[in-house]
Amino acid sequence: MPENNIKGSTLLRISYILALSPFITGSSIFLYWFYKRTYFAESADIEIIAFFTILSYFLFGFTTLILCIIFIFKYKSRWTKTLQPLAIIVITFFTIEIYDNLYRALEEKAFVQIINDSNLTISRIWSDSFELDNLSKRGNTFVISFYPIYTYDWNHPSSIGENYTLHPVYITLSGRDDKEKNYLLPSYYKGNCVNLKISDVLNNK
Question: Organism's domain of life (predicted)?
């Protein structure tokens, strides 16, 4: 009997490991990508490792299901112990869906790390679709994100792709005399992750 308990515990332990591995790995990958993008405006290439993580989820999930079925047949009175690894598989499935939706949504935005290396104060950053103010409270380095707005010209299609223009984004800077001046920022596209120094804006770089 003790030997059967040990074998049963081993089956459960393997089931837990297989069920948890894709969840922990996938969550770590996504949170790393999310952290780099939102806090440092840096892009991390996670597509390949994410693909293999999802592949391992289906492989490990199927194996876990088989092990749980074997456990239930061998230890019918303890079948409830298989509910937790099976629940982890279900939770992981919905977690993947959530991460995928967040990934797609954030890929539609541009992330820009603003580095204020000048003596000027950043009053606001704005465009047709958004306006960010009170930026001086964020310090000299901070990250902004926004949805770039495209205007397509369907009447004059381009031979190399669709004809479109990006709505301009401006930054308002003020000096010690509180006089404000607007500057045009570079064009940013969906999915861009860039650093921008205010000195480059002033020098029109």
Answer: Bacteria
